Amino acid sequence: MIMSGGRNKKLKHISVSVLTAALAASLAIPAFAETLDVGRGKLNEVISEDGSKYFIYDDGTYYTGWLNMDGTTYYLSPENYAAYTNGIYNIRGRVYYFDENGAANSDIWIWNQCPSAVDSFINNVEYDPDDYSVSVIANYAPAEADLSNRVPVTVRIGSDLISNAIPNTYTAFKYTDSAGQQHTGIFYPQGQVRWIRSIAATNIRDLGGWKCEGGTIKYGKIFRGGLVSEEDRPVLVDQLGIRHDIDLRGSDVDLTSSPLGEDIDYIRTEHSNYYDIENHPDDWARTLQCVFNAAINNEPVYFHCSMGADRAGTFACIIEALLGVSRSDMDKDYELTNFSYGVYDDDIARRRDEYQWQLLMDDIERLEGDTFREKVTGWVLSLGFSEEEVEAFRNAMIDWDA
């Protein structure tokens, strides 16, 4: 869970009393009739030496399943008879949080963390990879930069602000209410695109969440964006866990270490690869090797140029192609930069129908292979990588479908 300041949006607090029937069926603590077997005697609460909680009848029989005792709801495991504690559990397709004492909790917050304009663009647009004369990003992105479109929707729970959370994931957390009382609940931010709110850097987003061949790209592994400074360390390093900084600006800068800190692995390309895969193979080999190793070793990596648009967009295209992201989604990810900078000026706007992006697509199409992924994979192998390295990278990056 990430806490940060910023814009607030009204949060939907879901409690048992206000749940719709459909939502209650999937989230709420179930209503049930307590069925104690009085023939077995009194039901006794027992705490074992390891701290596990059990409810046992006088005759030594363990109680299992849902139990309401003195207004507190527990769930006793049918497998080992212990009460579920300290975590989120899926019970018959429903999600519940149990505190350290085994009490079930129904405080659940759900909101769309992805800005509505971005969410609408992602969900409503499908590009034709055979027609690069079309771009509709101007129908969704603002004419001029609007901060609310390029950072996650931040919400307040008690005295805390929640931001930069992993989407579509249940997270248990403790919060303090207006009376100063501590509680435990669950939050579940929705939306696919995970924008990151930092201090100085802009246009930051997680590469996770995109559908790809065989599954979905994992969140929290690879991040892209604009220029960073030491001010971004609390978010990028302390919160997101970034361990590698790939600077794609080439000879535009003469840095030898990352502004994020001396403890961060820093790689700077020798050249700037604007929509170009035909030149500077050594740069490509070094940066891709870093990404492969970082993903396999679960060490988050941040790659960037100045704006997170052209050079970062080129690098992201190669990574996404290796993972099997569709051409339409690669185009959309490229165009998401417009939510950071606006589309009012051709020098600023980044659209799929512009010649630079089309040149990159054409260069890849000329490579050998039947599919876009096969073409890029073959090109990566020509840089000196093995098929095993590429497959290990894919396995580290993809949440495979069942």
Could you explain how this protein is built, in words?
With 402 residues, the protein is an alpha+beta fold. It has 2 domains: 29-105, left handed beta-beta-3-solenoid (Ribbon); 115-151 and 196-400, Protein tyrosine phosphatase superfamily (Protein-Tyrosine Phosphatase, Chain A), CATH 3.90.190. It has 10 helices and 21 strands. The protein has helices at residues 21-27, 116-124, 233-236, 281-296, 310-323, 327-335, 338-341, 355-365, 372-382, 387-397, and strands at 12-14, 43-47, 53-57, 65-69, 72-76, 87-91, 94-98, 104-105, 108-112, 155-157, 160-162, 171-176, 182-190, 205-206, 211-212, 215-217, 222-225, 244-247, 265-268, 301-304, 398-400. Strands 14-17-20-18-19 form a 5-stranded mixed beta sheet, covered by helices on one side. A 4-stranded mixed beta sheet has the order 1-9-13-12, with no helix packed on it. Strands 6-7-8 form a 3-stranded antiparallel beta sheet. Strand 12 and strand 13 (182-190) form a beta hairpin. It is elongated, with a radius of gyration of 25 Å. The two termini are 27 Å apart. Mean pLDDT is 88; it is low at 1-27.
Strand percentage lies at 15-25%
Count structural domains.
Answer: 2
Strand order of the largest sheet: 14-17-20-18-19
CATH class value of the largest domain: Alpha Beta
- From the structure provided, what is the oligomeric state, counting identical versus distinct chains? single chain
Number of helices: 10
CATH architecture of the largest domain: Alpha-Beta Complex
Work out the radius of gyration: 25 Å
Q: Which word captures the global form?
A: elongated
Which fold name fills CATH's third level, the topology of the largest domain? Protein-Tyrosine Phosphatase, Chain A
Biggest sheet descriptor: 5 strands, mixed
SS-derived structural category: alpha+beta
Name given to the CATH homologous superfamily of the largest domain: Protein tyrosine phosphatase superfamily
How far is it from the N-terminal to the C-terminal residue, by CA? 27 Å
Helicity, as a percent range: 10-25%
Regions with little confidence, pLDDT below 50 for 5+ residues: 1-27
The count of strands amounts to 21
What's the mean pLDDT score?
88
